[in-house]
Specification:
The protein is α/β, with parallel strands linked by helices. It is built from four helices and nine strands.
Length: 245
């Protein structure tokens, strides 16, 4: 158990014993235990985490979706910021700045979507992070855990609305943040940053109408000029002062 900090060793040992083959992976990042669960074991593992003596994770604090499309792709090289500080906006790199016809494809990305759950055991004062990857990137589906932790209700609706992750068995799976009739899922990395439609009130029609967006995708990169305060004053022109790193 040398891979875990002292405070997490007992919990890590019990997780490996009680979850056994339901535990696809267990690691510690910044003193936080992260348990990876396969989709087929999602419900059984969550129920065991709630009901097993010594674990008893009685509160689900948070649930969110993650889209790993473009994960790890840098779009602004910091080392070159001095010479090309505006390149990030000019080159239009990274997911989100593209037209719909040239959107990135995700077929070659394994485990594109993830559902992340934060748990708390009030009895043992322990926290645990769960992560599960739905199998199909084009239609991510995962069983709902509302019957295990009722607090998951709105969080699952939010993950469905923003990421398009479907939670089977949810009692009322419908959008919670976007408008009625909204098309797409705005937190997906292949969703245009400017959206697909714009909404405005039409005085002639007396109602809200939807129109194709006319906004050009762009990113504003601030140009920060730093000068050493020792050289700023009446005795020296700021333009002649050496730049500080």
């Amino acid at each position: 158990m040398s891979d875990f900090s002292q405070r997490n060793q007992a919990l890590a040992r019990q997780l490996k014993e009680d979850l056994a083959d339901k535990l696809a992976d267990l690691r510690e990042v910044r003193r936080q235990l992260i348990a990876e669960i396969a989709p087929d074991d999602w419900i059984d593992a969550c129920r065991a985490l709630r009901d097993t003596d010594g674990l008893e994770f009685d509160i689900m604090i948070d649930l969110c979706g993650v889209d790993f499309l473009g994960y790890g792709d840098d779009e602004w090289e910091t080392a070159e910021a001095t010479g090309s500080g505006f390149s990030r906006g000019v080159d239009e790199l990274g997911p989100g700045r593209f037209d719909w016809e040239s959107r990135p494809e995700a077929e070659d990305i394994p485990n594109r979507f993830a559902v992340v759950v934060q748990l708390l055991s009030t009895r043992h004062n322990r926290r645990l992070r769960l992560r599960c990857h739905p199998e199909q990137a084009d239609f991510p589906v995962l069983p709902s855990i509302v019957d295990i932790w009722n607090s998951a209700n709105w969080y699952e609706r939010e993950a469905f609305d923003l990421f398009g992750i479907v939670f089977e068995g949810h009692p009322d799976l419908r959008r919670i943040a976007t408008d009625y009739g909204f098309i797409g899922h705005p937190f997906r990395k292949d969703f245009p940053l400017v959206g697909n439609v714009t909404v405005r009130y039409d005085d002639d029609r007396g109602r809200v109408i939807y129109e194709p967006t006319e906004i050009e995708p762009r990113v504003l990169v601030p140009r920060v000029i730093r000068r050493d305060s020792r050289y700023v004053g009446d005795e020296m022109d700021p333009e002649e002062a050496p730049a500080s790193g």
